[in-house]
């Protein structure tokens, strides 16, 4: 059967009984996930969210769907629900640098700079080649130092930075670069 047979140009697939069903309802799991990612990339968060939920109804351990759902929720200004998705993804795949980085982004947005730095550092340890984690870590460390300096609380700032400094050699390299 030709891959385009039965498909109309308006994105509707004809059923045998003559009724038309939106194409996205007839997609299998991988196709549904791909289509959801495309919708999300086009800022169609409500539609993408529905598809991620369909994938998760069939497989609640699908890390990519959890991350996609979290990104949609974050884009809709629902950080609490978004972070639940990212945390669930991390429970399933503790080394998922993407999920850890998105956790850090939400922490940073909520002003929890130390928690954000720790999440980014976990992401760096999970995948040292994942550049967003390194970039966001550098930004949050700068923000942390600036906010503590402006608040006149340099002693606490020094203690926090020393605590972070001790995490890994990679962290020390980033802090030295910032100084």
Automatic annotation (TrEMBL):
Alphabetically ordered keywords of this record: Glycosyltransferase, TPR repeat, Transferase
The keyword S-adenosyl-L-methionine appears for this protein: no
Disordered: annotated span: 1-24
Pfam (any one): TPR_16
GO function terms (MF aspect): glycosyltransferase activity
Extent of the TPR repeats: 63-96, 97-130
The protein's annotated pathway: Protein modification; protein glycosylation
Transmembrane as UniProt keyword: no
Protein name: Uncharacterized protein
Source organism per UniProt: Zizania palustris
